[in-house]
Structure prediction request, 125 residues.
Amino acid sequence: MVAGVFSDTVDMGSLQMISLEEYHNFLTKIEWTGTTGEIEGFSKNQNLRISPNPASDYIDIQYSGGENILFFELMNQYGKRIFIKEDLSKTIKFSLDVSNLPSGLYFINLYTESNLVISKKAIIN
Prediction:
C-alpha cells in the first residue's frame, strides 16, 4: 500500500491521478514485479531527525536539508493524516505533542517544492 498527498498529477503506469484542488489524499496498492530499489520521489534523507523514537509525550522534529518544504504531516499506519503544518522554510525545528495519540506506528512526511517526499517512521508508546 502507498499513502500520500499529491497537488498536481501522479502517473503510475496506466493510472493517472489529477488533483482538482490544492492537495488530495490518496491510498493505493502498488504491485512490484521488478527488482528491489528506491521508489522515485521518496527519500530516506538523513537531514530529517526525530527524537526520541519511540516517544510517549513529544517528538522533536528537525530538518536542515536545503529543500524548500511545502508542508509537514504526521500520518498513522493506516494513512490517516493526524497533523499538518504548512508554510515551512528550508530549516525546521519544532516539538509535536503526541501524548494523546494511541500507541502505534506513525509516519513523519515532509513534502518539498521539487516533489520529493522525505519520510521517517516514528513509534508512539
In short: Confidence is low (pLDDT under 50) at residues 27-43. The chain has no helices and twelve strands. The two ends are 24 Å apart (CA to CA).
